[in-house]
Structures are given as C-alpha cells and as structure tokens.
Write a structure and sequence with these properties.
CATH topology of the largest domain: OB fold (Dihydrolipoamide Acetyltransferase, E2P)
Protein name: C-X-C motif chemokine
Structural class: alpha+beta
Family: Belongs to the intercrine alpha (chemokine CxC) family.
Shape: elongated
Keywords: Chemotaxis, Cytokine, Disulfide bond, Secreted, Signal
InterPro entries: Chemokine_b/g/d, Chemokine_CXC, Chemokine_CXC_CS, Chemokine_IL8-like_dom, CXC_Chemokine_domain, Interleukin_8-like_sf
Number of strands: 3
Order of helices and strands: HEEEH
CATH architecture of the largest domain: Beta Barrel
Strand content: 5-15%
Number of helices: 2
GO biological process, one term: immune response
Distance between the termini: 90 Å
Length: about 130
C-alpha cells in the first residue's frame, strides 16, 4: 500500500516536471521568436551600405550626345543609396558614369522618364483595343 506521503511526493514531482516542461517550452518559444525577429530586421538592412554602386566616383559632367548608344538610369535602392546614370558609348561599347547632378544628366533622366511614361501609356491603350 502506498502511504499518503508517498502519493503527495509523487504528485509534487509530477507537478514540478510539468512546470519545468512548461518553462522550457516558453523559453524555447521566446528564443525562436527572438531569432525570427532579428532575421526580419536584418533582412531589411543592406549588407554593404553603398558598396554595391556601379559608379565609384562622381562621374563625368557631360558626354558627346553623338557618342551615346544606350542610357541606363538606376534609382536609389537597398544596394546603392544614390542615383546612377550609366551611358554606353557607341565606340568600343565602353560604359561611362555620368554625374547625376550635372545638367546633361538631369535632361537625360527627364527624357527617360518621359519615354517610360509613353511606353506605359501606349501599352495601356493597346490593352484596351484588344
């Protein structure tokens, strides 16, 4: 037969085990939530701030318009915090960075924005016709 003290000792041990398991699961859950929280915060930060820009220096102020084959305007993003204007030259397919604050770069940016807007508008018109 079991005495009352033996039963109470067993119930106390079971209660203590249940409390310990609950505390461990709460601690484990807190650790998992902390790791997920840190991962979501770190995902929004760029790894190399300003290290992924294509243009290293300020760039040239102007380029002969006749030598321009292609223009790429890259707006600020997580990888590079500045606007970059990259000109592909007709000769030797060489690329040059144009200073985005120069007068010629501002004109080029406005023209490319206008061209993109026109492409968007014409695609919407064509969609309506179809």
């Amino acid at each position: 037969m079991c005495s009352i003290s033996t039963l109470s000792k067993k119930s106390v041990k079971a209660e203590a085990a249940a409390t310990a398991a609950t505390n461990m699961s709460v601690k484990g859950m807190a650790i998992v939530l902390a790791v997920i929280f840190c991962a979501t915060i770190a995902q929004g930060f760029p790894m190399f701030k300003g290290g992924r820009c294509l243009c290293v220096g300020p760039g040239v102020k102007a380029v002969r318009v006749a030598d321009i084959e292609k223009v790429s305007v890259i707006y600020p993003s997580n990888y590079c915090d500045k606007t970059e204007v990259i000109i592909t030259m007709k000769t030797h397919k060489r690329q040059r960075c144009l200073n985005p604050r120069s007068k010629q770069a501002n004109i080029i940016i406005k023209i490319t924005e206008r061209m993109n807007l026109l492409k968007y508008q014409t695609s919407k018109i064509l969609e309506k016709r179809i």
